[in-house]
């Protein structure tokens, strides 16, 4: 975050509609055109004398000087048609992003004037559509039209223009009632009061009072000099389902039918839902068909956790945690992730579980570790390694660790570069792990496939005797387990030594995903734990019905056999 310098700051204000510019027609408010003309008559928004002296065009206004050394000019681009924001959709928000992209080089910052009703959705969508922002983008609007005597539009718009012109905050933000919020953290909480928005799980990025207080440690840093990317291929077939006590399974089934590809499910408290078997079965069936479900709490504050069995049941049904995301942000993220071409189902779920634009707070320790996922870094390393011709020894020492880092991050580009530089992708790093271990631990199905196709050994053991298959089981990376099993990987007797106790632990926590991972890897789920009880007995005692059904099915039916040879 930096203070914006220079004698002139140029902004683009994209006017999309909303109450701020509305007029009364037949007793109701409708979007009103000509916002620039209204602003031109208000001295706080326009210095006509200066504009004339500079010969500014009709659509470009200039603020009175905020400081002696700086002038802010802004061009108002009025959209056609103008909308009450209740009518806006992903299509219009992508168009706004494309407008910003078209004018990105000409302006120092952007203000989007938008209706408040869906402004939180708009800000969330824009935050995902616009990648690598280096300039400030601020949405604002009003509860009362700007031409009314007592209104909030003037203060909000002027504040947004001043913030966008005076600070470089490379994010999509929302300015309302003297507070600058991260756009994908807000939700509209009041339909009448001027303080219409709140950001329940992240303090404001800035607060305007006598002074402007910027929360510097919260503002995201611009990533290098990577060019702006506009992701216009957003998935439209996503939805929002709010659970309520007693919601019938049949209703959930009807909602989850194709063409729906992803759903944000608003659950109770810390991510809990009914544990009725018929409902869980519907959710699990949908997840198995490839429908992506994100669990968000309908509480305003707090996060989805795994504190309760009722929450674990949700997780067991193949549902991704949305942690403390607002439903607006989760829906936008889902649309963005599902719109990404070429991602496997596991790849989509992994992307959803990451914090991509500051939209969610991950539990401590779960943050995505710095890696080689940035291809600029990968290219830099490749360059460095080719430069030092004489430093073969250094190169040989570095290669295995670099390959492991790239495999863990699923960076196929870097892996390819390393192969081209002559790296052997089956070499071990300092703790005996190969890139296949790293890819399996990171759940990177793409990297696992690439390595297997390249002919690496499927069952190497690291210093502790662990195989990639075991690491994939521990991370519940089902796609990876499937690939390794298909290539002939097996768990060793040593890896299966304490499996019975582990299975009982999973059964007691209703961790169906964990149990299914072991089963998929070839473990015998009938193995007793330390006290002689099987996972089935433990699940029955804990009343974890879903787990019971799963284990009974294995015991009784065709699924009784583990899906392949269990041990070497
Ligand atoms: N205050 C507002 O802007 C509400 C209006 N219905 C809109 O969202 O366009």
Considering the chains and any ligands shown, give keywords for the structure.
568 residues, alpha/beta, Rossmann fold, Serine Threonine Protein Phosphatase 5, Tetratricopeptide repeat, 4 domains, nine-stranded mixed sheet, four-stranded parallel sheet, 21 helices, 21 strands
Please tell me about this protein's structure.
Residues 237-340 form the Asparaginase/glutaminase C-terminal domain. Residues 11-219 form the L-asparaginase N-terminal domain. The active site is at 116. One of its GO terms (molecular function) is 1-alkyl-2-acetylglycerophosphocholine esterase activity. 37% of the residues lie in helices and 15% in strands. By secondary structure, it is of the alpha/beta class. It has 4 domains: 8-227, L-asparaginase, N-terminal domain (Rossmann fold); 238-353, Rossmann fold (3-Layer(aba) Sandwich); 370-493, Ankyrin repeat-containing domain (Serine Threonine Protein Phosphatase 5, Tetratricopeptide repeat, Alpha Horseshoe), CATH 1.25.40.20; 497-567, Ankyrin repeat-containing domain (Serine Threonine Protein Phosphatase 5, Tetratricopeptide repeat), CATH 1.25.40.20. The strands form 6 sheets. The chain has a 9-stranded mixed sheet, sandwiched between helices. Strands 18-19-20-21 form a 4-stranded parallel sheet. The longest helix is centred in the C-terminal third of the chain and has 18 residues, at 392-409. The termini are far apart. Residues 368-375, 386-390, 558-562 and 564-568 have low confidence and may be disordered. It binds asparagine. Asparagine (ASN) is lined by residues 17-19, 84-86, 115-117, 141, 143.
């Amino acid at each position: 975050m930096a203070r914006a310098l220079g004698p002139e700051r140029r902004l683009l204000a994209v006017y999309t509609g909303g109450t701020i510019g509305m007029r009364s027609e037949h007793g109701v408010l409708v979007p009103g055109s000509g916002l620039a003309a209204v602003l031109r008559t208000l001295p706080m928004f326009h210095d006509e004398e200066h504009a004339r002296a500079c010969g500014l065009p009709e659509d470009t206004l200039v603020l009175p000087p905020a400081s002696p050394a700086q002038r802010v000019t802004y061009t108002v681009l009025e959209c056609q048609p103008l909308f009450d924001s209740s009518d806006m959709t992903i299509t219009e928000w992508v168009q706004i992003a494309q407008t910003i992209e078209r004018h990105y080089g000409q302006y120092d910052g952007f203000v989007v004037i938008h209706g408040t009703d869906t402004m939180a959705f708009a800000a969330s969508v824009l935050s995902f559509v616009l990648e690598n922002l280096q300039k400030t983008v601020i949405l604002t609007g009003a509860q009362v039209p700007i031409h009314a005597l007592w209104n909030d539009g003037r203060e909000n718009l002027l504040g947004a223009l001043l913030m966008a012109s005076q600070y470089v905050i490379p994010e999509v933000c929302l300015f309302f009632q003297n507070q600058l919020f991260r756009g994908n953290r807000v939700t509209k909480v009041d339909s009448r009061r001027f303080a219409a928005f709140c950001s329940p799980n992240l303090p404001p990025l800035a607060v305007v009072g006598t002074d402007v207080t910027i929360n510097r440690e919260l503002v995201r840093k611009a990533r290098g000099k990577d060019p702006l990317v506009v992701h216009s291929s957003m998935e439209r077939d996503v939805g929002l389902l709010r659970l309520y006590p007693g919601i019938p399974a049949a209703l959930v089934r009807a909602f989850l039918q194709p063409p729906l590809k992803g759903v944000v499910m608003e659950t109770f408290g810390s991510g809990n839902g009914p544990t009725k078997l018929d409902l869980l079965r519907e959710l699990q069936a949908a997840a198995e068909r490839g429908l992506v479900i994100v669990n968000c709490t309908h509480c305003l504050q707090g996060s989805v956790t795994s504190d309760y069995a009722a929450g674990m049941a949700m997780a067991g049904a193949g549902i991704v945690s949305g942690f403390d995301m607002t439903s607006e942000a989760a829906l936008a993220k889902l649309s963005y992730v599902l719109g990404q071409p070429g991602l496997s189902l596991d790849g989509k779920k992994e992307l959803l579980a990451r914090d991509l634009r500051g939209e969610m707070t991950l539990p401590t320790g779960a943050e995505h570790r710095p890696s080689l996922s940035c291809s600029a870094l990968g290219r830099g390393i490749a360059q460095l390694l080719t430069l030092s011709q004489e430093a073969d020894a250094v190169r040989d020492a570095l290669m295995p660790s670099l390959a492991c880092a790239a495999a863990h991050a699923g960076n196929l580009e870097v892996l390819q570069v390393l192969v081209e530089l002559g790296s052997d992708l089956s070499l071990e790093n300092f703790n005996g792990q190969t890139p296949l271990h790293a890819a399996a631990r990171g759940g990177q199905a793409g990297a696992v496939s690439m390595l297997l196709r390249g002919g690496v050994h499927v069952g190497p053991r690291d210093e502790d005797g662990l195989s990639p298959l075991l690491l994939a089981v521990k991370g519940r990376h089902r796609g990876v387990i499937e690939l390794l099993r298909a290539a002939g990987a097996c768990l060793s007797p040593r890896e299966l030594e304490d499996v019975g106790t582990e299975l009982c632990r999973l059964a007691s926590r209703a961790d169906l995903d964990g149990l299914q991972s072991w089963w998929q890897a070839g473990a015998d789920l009938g193995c007793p734990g330390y006290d002689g009880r099987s996972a089935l007995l433990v699940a029955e005692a804990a009343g974890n019905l879903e787990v019971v059904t799963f284990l009974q099915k294995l015991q009784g039916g065709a699924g009784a056999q583990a899906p392949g040879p269990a041990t070497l």
